[in-house]
Design goal:
alpha/beta
Length: about 400
Amino acid sequence: MNTIDKFNEHVMHTYGRYPLVMEKGEGVCCTDEAGKSYIDFGSGIGTNSLGYCDEKWADAVCAQVRSVQHTSNYYYTKIQADFAEKLCEITGYDKVFFGNSGAEANECAIKIARKYSFDKYGKGRNKIITLVNSFHGRTLTTLSATGQEVFHNYFFPFTEGFVYAEANNTDDLKNKLDDTVCAVMMEYIQGEGGVNALDKDFVDAVYQLCEEKDVLVITDEVQTGVGRTGKFLAGDNFGKKADIVTLAKGLAGGLPIGACLTNKKCSGVLTAGTHGSTFGGNPVSCAGGLAVLQRVMSTGFLDEVTEKADYIRTELEKCPEVESVSGIGLMIGIKLKTKKAADVVKEALDKGLLLLTAKDKVRLLPPLTIEKAELEKGMKILINILEG
Protein backbone atom coordinates (compact mmCIF):
# COMPACT_ATOMS: atom_id res chain seq x y z
CA MET A 1 0.00 0.00 0.00
CA ASN A 2 1.47 3.41 -0.96
CA THR A 3 1.69 6.34 1.42
CA ILE A 4 -1.42 8.15 0.18
CA ASP A 5 -3.58 5.01 0.31
CA LYS A 6 -2.26 4.16 3.78
CA PHE A 7 -2.92 7.71 4.93
CA ASN A 8 -6.46 7.76 3.60
CA GLU A 9 -7.12 4.35 5.16
CA HIS A 10 -6.28 5.53 8.67
CA VAL A 11 -6.53 9.35 8.89
CA MET A 12 -9.87 11.21 8.99
CA HIS A 13 -10.67 12.99 5.74
CA THR A 14 -10.91 16.49 7.18
CA TYR A 15 -8.73 18.17 4.54
CA GLY A 16 -8.84 18.49 0.79
CA ARG A 17 -5.30 17.27 0.21
CA TYR A 18 -3.08 17.55 -2.85
CA PRO A 19 -1.36 14.38 -4.11
CA LEU A 20 2.06 15.30 -2.73
CA VAL A 21 3.87 13.17 -0.16
CA MET A 22 6.47 15.48 1.34
CA GLU A 23 9.62 13.68 2.43
CA LYS A 24 12.20 16.33 3.25
CA GLY A 25 12.90 20.03 2.95
CA GLU A 26 15.73 22.51 3.01
CA GLY A 27 15.43 26.28 2.84
CA VAL A 28 12.46 27.25 0.69
CA CYS A 29 12.32 23.92 -1.17
CA CYS A 30 10.83 20.55 -0.31
CA THR A 31 11.13 17.17 -2.01
CA ASP A 32 8.48 14.48 -2.45
CA GLU A 33 8.86 10.69 -2.25
CA ALA A 34 9.70 10.48 -5.94
CA GLY A 35 12.49 13.04 -5.60
CA LYS A 36 10.65 15.92 -7.27
CA SER A 37 11.53 19.34 -5.83
CA TYR A 38 9.06 22.18 -5.12
CA ILE A 39 9.53 25.85 -4.28
CA ASP A 40 7.21 26.50 -1.37
CA PHE A 41 5.34 29.82 -1.48
CA GLY A 42 2.98 28.69 1.29
CA SER A 43 5.40 27.73 4.11
CA GLY A 44 2.88 25.48 5.84
CA ILE A 45 0.28 28.29 5.74
CA GLY A 46 2.76 30.81 7.07
CA THR A 47 4.20 28.50 9.71
CA ASN A 48 7.68 27.61 8.42
CA SER A 49 8.76 31.22 8.85
CA LEU A 50 12.45 30.36 8.42
CA GLY A 51 11.77 27.78 5.71
CA TYR A 52 12.57 24.09 6.07
CA CYS A 53 15.12 22.94 8.63
CA ASP A 54 17.00 26.21 9.07
CA GLU A 55 20.38 25.20 10.47
CA LYS A 56 20.50 27.40 13.60
CA TRP A 57 16.84 26.70 14.34
CA ALA A 58 17.37 22.93 13.98
CA ASP A 59 20.46 23.05 16.19
CA ALA A 60 18.53 24.87 18.93
CA VAL A 61 15.61 22.42 18.73
CA CYS A 62 17.84 19.33 18.73
CA ALA A 63 19.87 20.60 21.67
CA GLN A 64 16.67 21.11 23.66
CA VAL A 65 15.34 17.65 22.72
CA ARG A 66 18.51 16.16 24.21
CA SER A 67 18.14 18.23 27.39
CA VAL A 68 14.48 18.33 28.50
CA GLN A 69 11.73 17.62 25.97
CA HIS A 70 8.78 18.26 28.31
CA THR A 71 7.86 18.91 31.89
CA SER A 72 4.66 19.77 33.68
CA ASN A 73 3.83 23.44 34.07
CA TYR A 74 3.96 22.83 37.82
CA TYR A 75 7.68 23.43 37.31
CA TYR A 76 9.82 26.07 35.63
CA THR A 77 12.15 25.78 32.64
CA LYS A 78 14.85 28.25 31.69
CA ILE A 79 14.04 28.06 27.97
CA GLN A 80 10.41 29.09 28.55
CA ALA A 81 11.55 31.96 30.77
CA ASP A 82 14.09 33.13 28.16
CA PHE A 83 11.55 32.87 25.34
CA ALA A 84 8.87 34.73 27.30
CA GLU A 85 11.32 37.48 28.26
CA LYS A 86 12.42 37.97 24.65
CA LEU A 87 8.87 37.90 23.29
CA CYS A 88 7.63 40.48 25.80
CA GLU A 89 10.70 42.64 25.19
CA ILE A 90 10.13 42.66 21.41
CA THR A 91 6.39 43.26 21.54
CA GLY A 92 6.24 45.56 24.57
CA TYR A 93 3.60 43.41 26.29
CA ASP A 94 3.63 42.64 29.99
CA LYS A 95 2.76 38.92 30.27
CA VAL A 96 2.26 35.90 28.01
CA PHE A 97 0.36 32.62 28.23
CA PHE A 98 1.62 29.77 26.04
CA GLY A 99 -0.64 27.23 24.36
CA ASN A 100 -0.26 25.01 21.30
CA SER A 101 -2.09 26.76 18.46
CA GLY A 102 -3.74 29.92 17.23
CA ALA A 103 -7.17 28.68 18.25
CA GLU A 104 -5.93 28.07 21.79
CA ALA A 105 -4.34 31.52 21.92
CA ASN A 106 -7.65 33.03 20.83
CA GLU A 107 -9.60 30.99 23.40
CA CYS A 108 -7.26 32.38 26.06
CA ALA A 109 -7.83 35.94 24.82
CA ILE A 110 -11.61 35.45 24.96
CA LYS A 111 -11.40 34.13 28.51
CA ILE A 112 -9.23 37.05 29.61
CA ALA A 113 -11.64 39.59 28.09
CA ARG A 114 -14.68 38.06 29.76
CA LYS A 115 -13.00 37.66 33.14
CA TYR A 116 -11.59 41.20 33.03
CA SER A 117 -15.11 42.53 32.52
CA PHE A 118 -16.65 40.19 35.10
CA ASP A 119 -14.08 41.13 37.73
CA LYS A 120 -14.61 44.85 37.15
CA TYR A 121 -18.30 45.14 36.18
CA GLY A 122 -19.97 41.86 37.17
CA LYS A 123 -22.29 39.71 35.06
CA GLY A 124 -23.99 40.78 31.85
CA ARG A 125 -21.04 42.40 30.07
CA ASN A 126 -19.63 39.42 28.17
CA LYS A 127 -20.26 39.87 24.45
CA ILE A 128 -17.38 40.10 22.01
CA ILE A 129 -17.70 41.85 18.67
CA THR A 130 -15.79 40.20 15.84
CA LEU A 131 -15.82 41.15 12.16
CA VAL A 132 -17.75 39.70 9.27
CA ASN A 133 -15.39 37.59 7.14
CA SER A 134 -13.03 36.93 10.06
CA PHE A 135 -11.50 33.60 11.00
CA HIS A 136 -10.35 32.78 14.54
CA GLY A 137 -10.04 28.99 14.73
CA ARG A 138 -11.86 25.66 14.66
CA THR A 139 -12.73 24.95 18.29
CA LEU A 140 -16.40 25.47 19.10
CA THR A 141 -15.77 28.85 20.69
CA THR A 142 -13.37 30.17 18.05
CA LEU A 143 -15.74 28.95 15.32
CA SER A 144 -18.42 30.96 17.09
CA ALA A 145 -16.10 33.97 17.05
CA THR A 146 -15.46 33.49 13.32
CA GLY A 147 -17.61 35.89 11.30
CA GLN A 148 -18.37 33.58 8.38
CA GLU A 149 -21.73 31.80 8.18
CA VAL A 150 -20.22 28.92 6.24
CA PHE A 151 -18.56 27.77 9.46
CA HIS A 152 -21.69 28.00 11.58
CA ASN A 153 -23.14 24.60 10.84
CA TYR A 154 -23.28 21.01 12.12
CA PHE A 155 -21.87 21.55 15.60
CA PHE A 156 -24.87 23.11 17.37
CA PRO A 157 -25.22 24.65 19.84
CA PHE A 158 -22.43 27.14 19.25
CA THR A 159 -20.94 29.25 22.04
CA GLU A 160 -23.09 32.31 22.64
CA GLY A 161 -21.93 35.86 23.18
CA PHE A 162 -20.50 36.85 19.79
CA VAL A 163 -21.75 39.70 17.60
CA TYR A 164 -20.49 40.38 14.07
CA ALA A 165 -19.83 43.87 12.71
CA GLU A 166 -18.97 44.68 9.11
CA ALA A 167 -15.26 45.28 8.56
CA ASN A 168 -14.49 48.93 7.76
CA ASN A 169 -18.03 50.00 8.72
CA THR A 170 -17.67 52.28 11.75
CA ASP A 171 -21.40 52.98 11.99
CA ASP A 172 -22.17 49.27 12.21
CA LEU A 173 -19.57 48.88 14.95
CA LYS A 174 -21.00 51.84 16.89
CA ASN A 175 -24.51 50.39 16.70
CA LYS A 176 -23.34 47.08 18.17
CA LEU A 177 -20.95 48.45 20.79
CA ASP A 178 -23.44 48.61 23.67
CA ASP A 179 -23.08 48.03 27.42
CA THR A 180 -23.12 44.24 27.03
CA VAL A 181 -19.82 44.22 25.10
CA CYS A 182 -16.49 43.48 26.80
CA ALA A 183 -14.17 43.32 23.77
CA VAL A 184 -13.69 43.83 20.04
CA MET A 185 -11.64 41.12 18.36
CA MET A 186 -10.18 41.61 14.87
CA GLU A 187 -7.49 40.64 12.39
CA TYR A 188 -5.64 43.57 10.82
CA ILE A 189 -5.56 41.45 7.65
CA GLN A 190 -8.33 38.90 7.22
CA GLY A 191 -6.20 36.02 5.97
CA GLU A 192 -8.64 33.14 5.48
CA GLY A 193 -11.24 35.73 4.52
CA GLY A 194 -9.32 36.71 1.37
CA VAL A 195 -6.15 38.52 2.54
CA ASN A 196 -8.00 41.81 3.06
CA ALA A 197 -6.37 44.51 5.18
CA LEU A 198 -8.56 46.74 7.33
CA ASP A 199 -8.74 50.47 6.57
CA LYS A 200 -6.65 52.59 8.91
CA ASP A 201 -9.59 54.92 9.63
CA PHE A 202 -11.64 51.95 10.79
CA VAL A 203 -8.84 50.63 12.99
CA ASP A 204 -8.44 54.09 14.53
CA ALA A 205 -12.18 54.20 15.23
CA VAL A 206 -12.13 50.77 16.91
CA TYR A 207 -9.45 51.88 19.34
CA GLN A 208 -11.09 55.22 20.07
CA LEU A 209 -14.55 53.76 20.69
CA CYS A 210 -13.20 50.94 22.84
CA GLU A 211 -11.11 53.30 24.96
CA GLU A 212 -14.16 55.45 25.67
CA LYS A 213 -16.12 52.45 26.99
CA ASP A 214 -13.30 50.45 28.66
CA VAL A 215 -13.87 47.74 26.06
CA LEU A 216 -10.77 45.65 25.37
CA VAL A 217 -9.22 45.37 21.92
CA ILE A 218 -8.03 41.89 20.96
CA THR A 219 -5.98 41.50 17.80
CA ASP A 220 -5.64 38.06 16.25
CA GLU A 221 -2.13 38.09 14.76
CA VAL A 222 -1.91 34.33 14.40
CA GLN A 223 -1.13 34.72 10.69
CA THR A 224 0.03 38.35 10.52
CA GLY A 225 2.53 38.35 13.38
CA VAL A 226 6.24 37.51 13.75
CA GLY A 227 7.47 39.62 10.84
CA ARG A 228 5.02 38.47 8.18
CA THR A 229 4.02 42.04 7.28
CA GLY A 230 7.51 43.57 7.50
CA LYS A 231 6.89 44.58 11.12
CA PHE A 232 7.05 42.17 14.03
CA LEU A 233 3.36 42.82 14.69
CA ALA A 234 0.96 43.90 11.96
CA GLY A 235 -0.44 46.44 14.41
CA ASP A 236 2.81 48.35 14.06
CA ASN A 237 1.78 49.17 10.47
CA PHE A 238 -1.30 50.87 11.91
CA GLY A 239 0.47 52.50 14.85
CA LYS A 240 -1.72 50.58 17.30
CA LYS A 241 -1.22 48.28 20.27
CA ALA A 242 -4.10 46.11 21.42
CA ASP A 243 -4.82 45.17 25.02
CA ILE A 244 -4.42 41.52 24.02
CA VAL A 245 -2.65 40.05 21.00
CA THR A 246 -2.48 36.42 19.88
CA LEU A 247 0.34 34.75 17.96
CA ALA A 248 0.98 31.25 16.60
CA LYS A 249 1.83 29.94 13.08
CA GLY A 250 5.35 31.30 12.35
CA LEU A 251 6.26 31.88 16.00
CA ALA A 252 8.19 28.63 16.51
CA GLY A 253 9.25 28.04 12.91
CA GLY A 254 7.09 24.96 12.35
CA LEU A 255 6.59 23.59 15.86
CA PRO A 256 3.20 23.79 17.60
CA ILE A 257 2.81 26.87 19.76
CA GLY A 258 0.32 29.62 20.55
CA ALA A 259 0.87 32.77 22.57
CA CYS A 260 -1.57 35.17 24.15
CA LEU A 261 0.10 38.42 25.24
CA THR A 262 -1.48 41.09 27.41
CA ASN A 263 -0.73 44.63 28.48
CA LYS A 264 -0.40 45.55 32.14
CA LYS A 265 -4.14 46.21 32.47
CA CYS A 266 -4.94 42.58 31.68
CA SER A 267 -1.79 40.82 32.90
CA GLY A 268 -3.24 39.76 36.26
CA VAL A 269 -6.68 38.64 35.08
CA LEU A 270 -5.91 34.92 34.84
CA THR A 271 -4.98 33.52 38.23
CA ALA A 272 -3.98 30.05 39.42
CA GLY A 273 -6.55 27.48 38.30
CA THR A 274 -8.40 29.74 35.82
CA HIS A 275 -6.52 28.51 32.74
CA GLY A 276 -3.91 25.95 31.76
CA SER A 277 -2.35 23.77 29.08
CA THR A 278 -0.49 20.48 29.38
CA PHE A 279 1.85 21.15 26.48
CA GLY A 280 1.75 24.95 26.52
CA GLY A 281 5.26 26.39 26.75
CA ASN A 282 6.79 23.06 25.78
CA PRO A 283 10.59 23.43 26.00
CA VAL A 284 11.22 22.19 22.45
CA SER A 285 8.71 24.63 20.94
CA CYS A 286 10.14 27.44 23.07
CA ALA A 287 13.65 26.64 21.80
CA GLY A 288 12.38 26.86 18.23
CA GLY A 289 10.56 30.07 19.07
CA LEU A 290 13.64 31.70 20.59
CA ALA A 291 15.64 30.85 17.46
CA VAL A 292 12.93 32.45 15.31
CA LEU A 293 12.90 35.62 17.41
CA GLN A 294 16.66 35.96 17.22
CA ARG A 295 16.59 35.63 13.43
CA VAL A 296 13.58 37.84 12.75
CA MET A 297 14.91 40.63 14.96
CA SER A 298 18.42 40.52 13.49
CA THR A 299 19.64 43.70 11.79
CA GLY A 300 17.94 44.37 8.47
CA PHE A 301 15.77 41.22 8.47
CA LEU A 302 12.37 42.96 8.50
CA ASP A 303 13.53 45.50 5.92
CA GLU A 304 14.36 42.58 3.63
CA VAL A 305 10.86 41.17 4.13
CA THR A 306 9.44 44.47 2.86
CA GLU A 307 11.84 44.52 -0.10
CA LYS A 308 10.83 41.00 -1.12
CA ALA A 309 7.16 41.92 -0.80
CA ASP A 310 7.66 44.99 -2.98
CA TYR A 311 9.34 42.85 -5.64
CA ILE A 312 6.43 40.38 -5.69
CA ARG A 313 3.86 43.15 -5.99
CA THR A 314 5.78 44.88 -8.78
CA GLU A 315 5.93 41.66 -10.78
CA LEU A 316 2.27 40.86 -10.23
CA GLU A 317 1.11 44.35 -11.21
CA LYS A 318 2.80 43.89 -14.60
CA CYS A 319 0.73 40.77 -15.29
CA PRO A 320 -2.44 41.40 -17.36
CA GLU A 321 -4.29 38.51 -15.67
CA VAL A 322 -3.95 40.10 -12.21
CA GLU A 323 -6.93 42.26 -11.29
CA SER A 324 -5.63 43.38 -7.89
CA VAL A 325 -3.12 42.54 -5.15
CA SER A 326 -4.08 42.71 -1.47
CA GLY A 327 -2.37 42.22 1.88
CA ILE A 328 0.73 43.67 3.53
CA GLY A 329 4.31 42.42 3.41
CA LEU A 330 4.75 38.73 2.57
CA MET A 331 1.05 38.08 3.13
CA ILE A 332 -0.33 38.50 -0.36
CA GLY A 333 -3.67 37.87 -2.04
CA ILE A 334 -4.00 37.85 -5.84
CA LYS A 335 -7.40 38.45 -7.43
CA LEU A 336 -7.49 37.16 -11.01
CA LYS A 337 -9.52 38.34 -13.98
CA THR A 338 -10.38 35.09 -15.77
CA LYS A 339 -8.59 32.15 -14.17
CA LYS A 340 -9.74 30.29 -11.07
CA ALA A 341 -7.39 30.36 -8.09
CA ALA A 342 -7.81 26.63 -7.44
CA ASP A 343 -6.84 25.82 -11.03
CA VAL A 344 -3.72 27.99 -10.77
CA VAL A 345 -2.67 26.22 -7.57
CA LYS A 346 -3.08 22.78 -9.20
CA GLU A 347 -1.09 23.77 -12.27
CA ALA A 348 1.63 25.30 -10.10
CA LEU A 349 1.90 22.04 -8.15
CA ASP A 350 2.55 20.17 -11.39
CA LYS A 351 5.28 22.69 -12.26
CA GLY A 352 7.04 22.55 -8.90
CA LEU A 353 5.56 25.52 -7.05
CA LEU A 354 3.40 25.31 -3.92
CA LEU A 355 0.72 28.01 -3.58
CA LEU A 356 -2.35 28.59 -1.41
CA THR A 357 -5.84 29.96 -1.90
CA ALA A 358 -7.98 32.28 0.19
CA LYS A 359 -11.59 32.53 -0.98
CA ASP A 360 -11.33 33.32 -4.71
CA LYS A 361 -7.72 34.53 -4.52
CA VAL A 362 -4.32 32.93 -4.92
CA ARG A 363 -2.51 33.42 -1.62
CA LEU A 364 1.24 33.73 -1.10
CA LEU A 365 2.90 33.22 2.30
CA PRO A 366 6.52 32.40 1.39
CA PRO A 367 9.15 31.83 4.09
CA LEU A 368 10.46 35.13 5.39
CA THR A 369 13.98 33.89 4.63
CA ILE A 370 13.39 33.23 0.92
CA GLU A 371 16.38 34.27 -1.18
CA LYS A 372 16.06 36.56 -4.20
CA ALA A 373 17.02 33.83 -6.70
CA GLU A 374 14.39 31.45 -5.30
CA LEU A 375 11.81 34.22 -5.28
CA GLU A 376 12.52 35.09 -8.90
CA LYS A 377 12.34 31.44 -9.96
CA GLY A 378 9.01 30.92 -8.19
CA MET A 379 7.55 34.14 -9.56
CA LYS A 380 8.56 33.17 -13.09
CA ILE A 381 6.61 29.91 -12.75
CA LEU A 382 3.58 31.76 -11.35
CA ILE A 383 3.58 34.51 -13.99
CA ASN A 384 3.93 31.98 -16.81
CA ILE A 385 0.88 30.12 -15.49
CA LEU A 386 -1.14 33.33 -15.19
CA GLU A 387 -0.21 34.46 -18.68
CA GLY A 388 -0.60 31.05 -20.29
